[in-house]
Each structure stands twice: as C-alpha cells, then as structure tokens.
Specification:
The structure is a single chain. This protein is α/β, with parallel strands linked by helices. The chain folds into three domains: 3-122 and 250-428, Rossmann fold (3-Layer(aba) Sandwich), CATH 3.40.50; 127-246, Domain 2, N(10)-formyltetrahydrofolate synthetase, CATH 3.30.1510; 443-525, Roll (Formyltetrahydrofolate synthetase, domain 3). It contains 19 helices and 23 strands. The strands form six sheets. Strands 1, 2, 3, 4, 5, 6, 13, 14, 15, 16, 17 and 18 form a twelve-stranded mixed sheet that branches. It has a three-stranded mixed sheet with strand order 19-20-21. It has a two-stranded parallel ribbon with strand order 7-10. The longest helix is centred in the first third of the chain and has 21 residues, at 127-147. The protein is globular and about 70 Å long.
Amino acid sequence: MTDLDIAKTVTLKPISEIAKKFGVNTEDIEMYGKYKAKLPLKYIDKENASKSHLILVSAISPTPAGEGKTTMSIGLSEGLNRLGKKTTVVLREPSLGPVFGIKGGATGGGYSQVLPMEDINLHFTGDFSAIEKAHNLLSAIIDNNIQSKTNSLQLDPRTISWKRVVDLNDRALRRVIVGLGGTTSGIPRETGFDITAASEIMAILCLAQNITDLKTRLGNIFIGYTFNKTPIYAKDLKAEGAMAALLKDAIKPNLVQTIEGNPAIIHGGPFANIAQGTNSVIATLMGMSHSEYTVTEAGFGFDLGAEKFFDIKCQSAGLTPKAVVLTTTIRALKYHGGAELNSLTTENLEALKKGLPNLEKHLENITKFKVPAIIAINKFSSDTDTEIDIIKEFATSKGVKIALADIWAKGGEGAINLAKQVIEVVKSNTSDFKPLYHWKSSVKDKIETIAKEIYGAEHVDYTTKAKAHLRKITDLGLDGLPVCIAKTQKSLSDNPKLLGRPKDFIITVREIEIASGAGFLIPITGDIMRMPGLPAHPASEHIDINDEGEITGLF
C-alpha cells in the first residue's frame, strides 16, 4: 500500500483525547476540526523542559528522494512510547513546493506517519499562509514608502534586499521587475521571489520564544539604505506590529497524532539547505515541557540541518541534546559510492563499501559537538542481509552503536531496538554538548570553521560581491551573528556532483544575505537557489480529488 493508503486505514482519535494524553487541559486547546489543534504558549514550562531528554535525528548525505529522517523520528518516538517512555515527536511542517515537486510530503511514511496526512501536507492550520502574508505585507509597505511623498524614508530602491515569497516551486519568479504600469503603479525596480520556507519571517517564527521576542525580531529586519546611506529596518517603517498580528495564531504550535495514537507537534518549516532547517524553538520547548523524551529532526544531512540545529538553535534557545540518531540507508551509501540512481535497489557491495566514507565523515562531524551518535539503518525491502552486515561491521570497527530500524513496515515495533539503544546512551550521560564556534568570532572565521571542519573543504573563496557584503556586515555591527550557510544538500561540498566524501575542494561564497531579524547571516555558496523549480514531471501530476472530497496521489 502507499503511504496515503496506509494513513486511510487508521481510525483517528479526537484531538481532545490526544491533548489529554499530552498533558494539557482540553478546554485550552484551539481546535481546527476534529484532529488538529493549536497549543497555547502558556503550556511551555522551561523547568520541566530542562529535565526532558532531547534526541536529534539527522542523516548522511541524501539521495534526491531523501533518506527518511521524518519517518525515523516518528518511528523512534513510537518505539520509546512502547517501552514506557513518555515521548513526543516534534517536526517541521511540509512546504507545498516539495509536495507538488519531487520529494513529496513530509509526514513520514508507511506505518511511521503523523496524521491526518492530507491536511498536514496541504495548508494544515494556515501557518505558511500567515508567514507568507506577513512577509509580503512588509514588501508592500516598502514599495509604498518608496512611492510616498508624505511618509517617505528616502529609501534607495537599489539597496533594498527584501523580496517577496510564495509557497510553491516557481523558477519564473526568481527575478522580476515590479512597479511597471505608470506613476500610479509604483517605482520600477528589480526584485524577486523566494520560497516561503526561505523567508526570514519563517526563520524568525522558528527562533522566537514569545510574542514580544517575535515583534523585536520582526522590527530588526534589515531593509536597505536611504540615499544618505542610513540603514533602514522594519521598525523604521512601523511594520512589526501589523506583521506580528498576522502571526498571532501561526506562532502557536500544532498538535496532531501518530499512527499509534501518540502526541506529535508540528510547527514551522524552514529548509536546511537555504535556512536553519529545524522546527520552532517554541514547539521543541512545548514537547520537552510534557515529555520524558523529545525526538526532533533537522533537515537534509548532518552537514546542513544538524550543524545549524547545534550552532544556531541550541545556542539561541539554550538547548542541550543528549544523542544524535544518524539515519542511514543502503541506497544512499551505494549512490555515494558511484551507483546510478536507477540501480539502487540492486545489491552492489562494491558501491556500498565505496560509499561508507560519507557515513564516516558524518560520524566524525557529530563527535565535534561532543554528542554521542547512534547509526540507524532505515530498512528498505530491497536491502540484503549481506549489505546490512557490511554497515554493522563498519559501525563495530568505529565503536559506534547501530540499530536496524524497520519502521516503514512495522512502525514502533520496528524501532524497539533503536529505542533501547537511545535509552542506553541517555543513561550513560556521555553527552557534553559543545558548539563548533563562538558567535563572537569573525564572520570569515565562522564560515571557514564550518567549511573546513564540517564539509571537509581545503579553502574558502569569496567573490567580490561577498567581500563587499562582509564590509557591509561590519559597518552595520552585525559581525557577532552566527552563520547559516546555504549549500547544496547533494554533496558535502558546494558542488552537487562531488559525491561520497570529497577532499581538497574549495567552497565559494558568492554573496552573504543579512537576516538580522532572525539573528543570523546567510552565506550563499555555489549555485544554490532560494526559489526551487519543478521537475519535468512534478508530483502534482498524480494528485487529484473526487466528488466525495477524497484526495489521491499524495506521498
């Protein structure tokens, strides 16, 4: 059966029942139908949260279809609950871009899913829409101020870095001209669109800890300069209050359920290749406030989402993870060992062995943060016993714990061994979390530390444009912000064709965007885009709905 077929076999529990199991008063939740609800921020208890065991699920470098971190996170949470450990899985919301593009949805798979699958993948509770509207409200205010004769800040249109966003993959919107049509239609200028997941508003929502913090961060968004070279921020346009008002519900995390009827929190959805790639601080703290174990995930490979989780989110929110579960698939190792995409279901021991250095590098990276690692093999039906044994032998040679997780087919039952290993690691109390760099280091030092230590680069090059941006950052006094490097997820390098564990390569920083509201800088490397495009045959071709409202084709 497909993921959607499996999801439709489950009889959902009323969300009020799930809320009670989670530990909140059912009269306080804000229901969105029978099976979804918003959780009020008052249920965050930082003292309780400090006692919860936070487990991060990451992955090796993925194939284009991804390696199942969300599926692994859900399965692990089910397994821990089966062992009597009150556990909540905390995830990101799906973006419509991948849903209609190549990757599909983000609600897990098989018997390791969060439900209702269709709702979560399509609009959900409207958080992305609210983020999009808040972002584009600021865009409209900026263009209105440029047009205005009575309320003008004398913004220089050539210096404005703020774009617009839409939650779809639409490459035609990457660069556009606005303001055409005459004097009443605005001032013509070049701008563009990013996907909503890459919006600074998304990043702000995911790092803010309350409404006051949200408004402060919104006000600190850098817009551009006046003709007199004075920097302008959103607060100078008096925009932060109205933007926050649009986000009044979006800031509240969403409560849903797993296939096995356990609580799941889903909130925020930044991509890890172009943003910080983790769910909201609020959602994580909410889960930790009511759970013995809290399982969360960070996007793409460890080099992207997990590095940002540790260096940005954990430092910003004061979080201390207890273990990293490194999702590993035989198909990805064969892919990084040189096997063709269309041959990954065929046994290929040579390619598998050649791909192991990619796994080795990610394990080395985890140790740099002083957090213990567990390899979790996400089992596929095409995996052979011989292939599985090769990875187990590799783990043994490295002294790393490993578990085979048959979570797609068996849900929580298939994660029992993994859950036991996680509990064992937590009990050992060997985590001594340490970030990779200090925020007070220079911007170049922070970039080069990540590029050399995490990616394995030999050197970092900066274009003339990037060097100018470094000077601008210094002039604005923003040197002390962490860096959120935008890089391809397909390789440890910034070249998607360099698979496995590349060495002696150069990372090229072509420009650096300022996200002063979110509280980080975005060095953009290689050819990475903040507005993806659709494939030749997008997933949307298979999605449909009938007269009874039944949706088909989601995956």
